[in-house]
Specification:
The complex is a heterodimer of chains A (205) and B (376). With 205 residues, chain A is an alpha/beta fold. Chain A is 41% helix and 20% strand. Chain A has a single domain, classed as Flavodoxin domain (Rossmann fold), CATH 3.40.50. In chain B, helix 3 links the parallel strand 4 and strand 5. Classes of the chains: A alpha/beta (205), B alpha/beta (376).
Chain lengths: 205, 376
């Protein structure tokens, strides 16, 4: 039995937030999906609100404070990531983007990522496809086909016709577990590994 | 062990008065600071090189030549000389000329520069930064060591039968440091030539630099210049002192809070906990500086940043008095006692010349010639 390490990053602002609620639902479903596949699961949930000042500091100084460094290392070394943001002004929130802006560029390469968002109305659900999916594609992550959007009305809706929130959560979690199983992610590359000897640098190869 | 100061040369408004010095004032202040550094017993003055406002030092050898005429002992250096966007031929000529004028009191630090637009302004591309540093420095190294150079590379027009003049003083090129804040390639480069490696760790946590310096030390040994603990390492530092710690914090806080580099970000307390910055009494500066050796091993050069973020000249000169009177003598003693006998000092013109003449059996002799043994 192998252990799958799952990082969950949520950018909800209120306490508790709808984004955290969705993140917890996704994490629970992913845990089940992993266990179903015979894996133990370790889950680390990060509320970006707790690191808002450190993220701004990192933007300005260029380096993360020790607590934020641990969070970034945890995300980089996880087997899979669940990323949840509230939709603000037609896109992910600024706090959400700041975290992925300061993450080391290779941190998410080949990593399976489940994207999810919350919003007041279902009319913003395509922000997942227009904003989050390209963001993670740019970071060379493998984005789970099902992106999960939860509007306020979803929290009261039933699971009719296989398209209710619970079904979407379970489908996305299954896809995430599958992608992690077939993933070739070896974690971020280290510039100190495979450093070319100087003769090679000098020859311009 | 060498102690000195390095200046960025920024023209920044004093946040406590709102007054911005003129370029003329700032340039003259940099000179006054250099002269003061010699007066209080420091070993090195280094100036940055910039080609955009609000920085003034675009022409380091002009400034250092002037300071050379007004000083007698202090080593004149750079922090850094842009090896990417300067023509290596001009660097070879400028610094050889400076060597003659300063009677050999010259070394320099190579750096790439991280201001994007400077590269295209000088006809280069920042994405070629490492390749430029590698090719340009290799040419510079040859220009100082070979009287007639034939050369062809990727970035510069070819040379046929070129002699860089004046030749280095006594045939001894200035010692070179390579500065980098995160590129292992530059640590590798410094190790290859047996040059010094300078880690300006003042804005980032110490842990970040441990690997970089360890890589340099390991590769220095690999290339046959000596053992890893004999590699020539320099470090940055940043301090503000008053005799009473609370006075230092109170006086420096507005400068910290408004500094171009970290202002409006972390608190002074957070930043001092996470980086080498020390704001406090001379004793606190001594204690913090002594931790550098524990992190990075015995090292050869310690440079402090003293004159940025709009600090007035008068304050900077007071800082240098404290540094020279209360801090450096103690650090010299402590570090000398702690250092093993086989760890060399940083090479100077005098030690390099003595080594070249075969008049010494010191370890520094191993640094000359600077090509790795495998290629000699």
């Amino acid at each position: 039995m192998t252990t799958r390490q799952l990082a969950v990053v949520t950018a909800g602002l209120s306490q508790p937030s709808a984004s955290r609620l969705l993140a917890d639902r996704l994490a629970a479903a992913a845990e089940q999906a992993f266990e179903h596949r015979g894996h133990e699961v370790g889950i680390e949930v990060v509320e970006l609100r707790d690191h808002a000042h450190e993220l701004t500091d990192n933007m300005l100084t260029g380096f993360p404070a020790p607590r934020l460094r641990r969070v970034m290392d945890g995300v980089a070394s996880a087997d899979g990531l669940i990323a949840v943001t509230p939709i603000f002004t037609a896109s992910y929130s600024g706090l959400f983007k700041m975290f992925f802006d300061v993450l080391e560029p290779d941190s998410l390469t080949d990593k399976p990522v489940l994207v999810a968002a919350t919003g007041g109305s279902e009319r913003h659900s395509l922000a997942l496809e227009h904003a989050l999916r390209p963001l993670f594609a740019y970071l060379r992550a493998v984005v789970v086909p099902t992106a999960v959007y939860a509007a306020s009305s979803d929290w009261g809706g039933g699971g009719t016709g296989g398209n209710g929130l619970s079904e979407r959560i379970n489908r996305a979690a299954d896809q995430l577990a599958h992608l992690v199983d077939v993933s070739s992610s070896a974690g971020p590359s280290d510039p100190f590994d495979d450093l070319a000897p100087f003769e090679q640098l000098l020859s311009g190869d | 062990m060498q102690f000195g100061i390095f200046t960025v040369g920024d023209v920044t408004a004093d946040p406590t008065t709102g007054r911005t010095p003129s370029e003329a004032e700032r340039i003259k202040a940099m000179v006054a600071i250099a002269l003061k550094a010699e007066e209080v017993g420091l070993d090195v003055f280094a100036t940055g090189e910039h080609h955009n406002p609000p920085f003034v030092p675009s022409s380091p050898t002009t400034m250092l030549g002037y300071i050379a005429a007004k000083t007698e002992r202090i080593i004149l250096s750079t922090s850094t000389t842009l090896i990417t966007t300067n023509d290596p031929v001009k660097i070879a000529e400028d610094f050889a000329m400076l060597q003659h004028l300063a009677d050999g009191r010259v070394d320099l630090m190579m750096g790439r520069g991280n201001t994007g637009p400077v590269y295209p302004w000088f006809g280069q591309d920042i994405r070629d930064g490492i390749a430029l540093a590698v090719e340009n420095y290799h040419l510079l190294n040859r220009l100082w060591r070979e009287d007639v150079v034939d050369w062809e590379g990727k970035f510069r027009t070819p040379l046929q039968g070129f002699t860089s003049t004046p030749r280095p003083l006594d045939g001894i090129p200035p010692f070179v440091w390579h500065g980098s804040i995160r590129s292992p390639e530059i640590a590798e480069q410094a190790a290859y030539y047996g040059d010094g490696f300078f880690a300006n760790h003042i804005f980032w946590p110490t842990e970040h630099y441990t690997r970089l310096i360890n890589l340099y030390r390991t590769r220095f040994e690999h290339y046959g210049h000596g053992s890893a603990d004999q590699a020539i390492v320099g470090l940055g530092g940043q301090v503000f002192m008053r005799r009473c710690s609370q006075d230092a914090v109170r006086e420096f806080r507005p400068y910290f809070d408004n500094a171009p580099v970290y202002g409006n970000g972390p608190s002074l307390e957070e930043f001092t906990a996470q980086t080498p910055l020390t704001v406090g009494s001379p004793q606190e500066v001594i204690e913090k500086t002594l931790t550098f050796r524990q992190h990075f091993g015995d090292y050869q050069r310690q440079l402090f940043l003293m004159d940025h973020a709009g600090l007035p000249l008068k304050t900077v000169l007071e800082q240098l008095d404290l540094l020279g009177e209360d801090v450096i003598p103690v650090l010299r003693g402590e570090l000398k006692d702690a250092r093993p006998a086989d760890v060399p000092d940083a090479p100077t013109h005098a030690t390099l010349r003595a080594a070249a003449e075969g008049g010494t059996d010191s370890l520094v002799a191993d640094l000359e010639p600077t090509l790795p043994r495998s290629l000699r």
